[in-house]
Amino acid sequence: xxxxxxxxxxxxxxxxxxxxxxxxxxxMVMRQSLVHGRRSAIVxxxxxxxxxxxxxxxxxxxxxxxxxxxxxxFNIVKWCGVAYLLYIxxxxxxxxxxxxxxxxxxAEPNERRQSALKAFGLGFAxxxxxxxxxxxxxxxxxxxxxxxxxxxxKFGYGLIMASSLILWFVGVSLFMTTPKMRAAFSxxxxxIDRVSGLVFxxxxxxxxxxxxx
Length: 213
What we know:
The structure is a single chain. By secondary structure, the chain is mainly alpha-helical. It has one domain (about 25-210). The protein is built from 9 helices and no strands. Helix 2 (about 25-35) packs antiparallel against helix 3 and helix 4 (about 65-70) crosses helix 5. Mean pLDDT is about 80; it is low at about 100-110.
């Protein structure tokens, strides 16, 4: 096997576990699917994938190493992420019941229609303001990817990972917006909002305890 193909296969083997693990990104896509519908959830998925390329880019350029070695810069990113997750969590807890007309598969929730820009921004911010990818990409790129691998190829690896992440969350979006899931949400929308709000707050508090290493 060509060494670059082996690098890519190794990266994807590790990254596949990171994709499916529960976290702020998954919670965001699930809530977007149930509250704002399929279109918003898919756009949010693209926002998350774009943010992933943001992390890959500064890691390749060496900025990730600087952030990982600077407590000050790490804390700036961390507390921005904490504030954002707590804001989303409190907003979810305060949300009222959402009435959804269950019918056509592509139907959108009528009361919470969301612009594409806002949906994209929610996904981008959820991922970009999380400092964990800094260490994730620094670790896997330093251990799996060779020092002499061309930069263009490293960006290619990043694009493949970002595309895989988008496809995963698009799949989650499609599943969560099936008629059965939407019907279940219409019966328990307020409780789902409360649970998702608590999840975001818990993730924010967990992030607040993270330390640079």
